[in-house]
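Table S2 (continued). Query chain:
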Amino acid sequence: MKLKYLFLLTLLAFSCKSPDNGLYEFDPRSLEENEITLSEITDDINYIPLDNSYPLGLIYDNIEFINNSIFLSVKDAGILVFNKEGKALRKIGGVGRGPGEYVYNFDFTIDEKTETVYIKDTGNIIKVYSKTGKFLRNFSLKEYGDYINSIKFLTSKLFAFFSIENENAEYKWIAVDSLGNLIKKEKRKIPAFTTNFGGANGAYIFQNKISYWNSFIDTVFTVLPNLVEKPSFIISPGEHRWPRYGKLLPGEISQYLSILKIFETNHFRMIQYIYKGRNDFVLIDKEDRKSFLTNWEFDGSGGILNDLDGGKSFLPKAYYTENDREYIVGLIYPYQLKILVSTDEFKNSAPKYPEKKKELEKLANNVKETDNPIVMMVRLNK
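Corresponding output:
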């Protein structure tokens, strides 16, 4: 039985290597330091100070730009909505255990047409709220799997992507309608296994399609409008990937590849990941497959060198489009900005847009260290 299981794993590893030789294969072991600057990929930068109506503590790594609104998930406050001038508009529901409240709000998604908000709460319960923040309903997806690691809403359907590191995990993902009625379920294709750790998994939307990745699968798949999935690109298999057997100690986890976030733009794939104790962010040119690698830290430092206005290096956290232009979004905290503009390095810098440097200095002088974060918006080149 063990021999058969090992044979299936080996067969799967080779079959997932590349279903199409034309697919890009991402391998963190082969990447070299090769930096790129913001001025090489963007043509504008702007800042949105978020007002202090709601004191923001820990902002979960989930920011959504829908129409003219910015949606943030904040640890103890819940889902908050700001306009593009940074004014707080409303709160979606509230954190708690009472009727219409949610305990857990790390992951949420929005119907772009109606601005209805779907929040993944504990126990695979989906809480649904109107654009004004009123609780509408909830429904359970527990029958389809033990743990949903991400949700996305697209074309009138809610997609739920499951962790597969439990032997009873039957599906990779399901699609339901806005009331929770099943539309499609996609069965897992790898043999059942159980581990003592959970991988880093996620999903993203690009050009009206959803793509997803999983720490235990070698292929990043895209779900087409007809709900058939196709390979998008390959995450190279090997000893750097999460093992599907045995037990890991907490200190061993950082030695394996954990992909935290993937964005896709017209010209690039952008991947934020941890591997062998390093925190890296890479841009991969879709045309020539050249990669540009930079480092980042959990304190918010690092990222793409900002030579547009001499400001903080830029670590993208979100992607959106508006008026046929592409934007990527990051965050900077006021205390970081005030420290930065006081340095000789900033004062002596000669960025591409000197007038933007002056605007940044003015912004730094007008905020307090304890103010809410500032949204950084950069517009990608056409």
